[in-house]
Batch of 2 targets.
Target 1
Amino acid sequence: EPEVTQTPSHQVTQMGQEVILRCVPISNHLYFYWYRQILGQKVEFLVSFYNNEISEKSEIFDDQFSVERPDGSNFTLKIRSTKLEDSAMYFCASSDSSSSYEQYFGPGTRLTVT
Amino acid sequence: ELKVEQNPLFLSMQEGKNYTIYCNYSTTSDRLYWYRQDPGKSLESLFVLLSNGAVKQEGRLMASLDTKARLSTLHITAAVHDLSATYFCAVDPTTDSWGKLQFGAGTQVVVTP
């Protein structure tokens, strides 16, 4: 069964560094998303992406963040100048154009900023 | 701004008994999802509810949606240990945007003998 994959599974970085989190959405999906979940808290929407541009973004998704689809398969989240409070699990999701727009989530990348 | 409230936040279940988790949301939407999350794992899709009165069932779980009351319920029948997990409802605010899922805080379910 097709699934969303994410790499790395765990990323440790120092405060102020830049990180890139990578996702491979399900191959025939057209809509891509990033969410984050701080430990023990709810899942928060960051950004949605369709047709090579951002569709929606939350207040969390400020100039520190950017997304890109560098090729036909990858979808990346870049976090510049990381802060301690960026430590969280980051989930990528994708959906197709069916009426349900059901989002399928990847396994997540745990980002630890020290 | 869309608010999604789940209750209870923690539910201790006895095996064999029935329980309900509630999900209230603050603005009009006709697209609601239920997810399960095991500790340290990703979100597993349980149900997609797309219209008023929608009811879906899978095994011991049944979800329903009342868009007029802005309420969804997840009913667990005859709880068993492997249902222990955190359950999230998520609402898609389809009136002004789509795909921007707003999650509830989650209900942590622990099933004991």
Target 2
Amino acid sequence: GESVGLHLPTLSVQEGDNSIINCAYSNSASDYFIWYKQESGKGPQFIIDIRSNMDKRQGQRVTVLLNKTVKHLSLQIAATQPGDSAVYFCAEGESGGSNYKLTFGKGTLLTVNP
Amino acid sequence: NAGVTQTPKFRILKIGQSMTLQCAQDMNHNYMYWYRQDPGMGLKLIYYSVGAGITDKGEVPNGYNVSRSTTEDFPLRLELAAPSQTSVYFCASSSTGGHRNQPQHFGDGTRLSIL
């Protein structure tokens, strides 16, 4: 989920386990959602996106689930690896007048223990 | 392709100094953005541009200015640096999506400290 203050939510998993990172979004009119990965000292890296006409989308080792009823988004990472350790955050966008702008969450810190 | 390139990577400024953060993309993207990221916080949009010659304010534009004379470049200007502008600045770009959003692609940031 999202954080308040300066401390990010954290998730610690063992190598090989599956990880689930959650995100609650705020705008019921949002119809486009993205997950980003940010490693220390790097810019956000696009992982996967999903539009509101879908409730599930799969990529390589990642799956995004969208529940529009409760405005909830999740990122599942299969067989988590040490290289997956990073901050993950979601972003939401709304098509239409300002369809090129995204609103970003604060992120969740994923730590993978070998 | 280099993607989105930001320079410098690090900078220390004194209060009241000015500087320009450079951003260039080689993906022929129409949309470009400047964000700041403070510790433990999400990205905040400073300014954005939907094409050459067009810029608009984002969520936190005060103290900054931008220009977009070419498709490739989108520099961010700080005129009178203040300690509150200490942050990590990210530039991003995305392709024209019409009515459909497209993912934004980010540079690796400029880490700026104002002392």
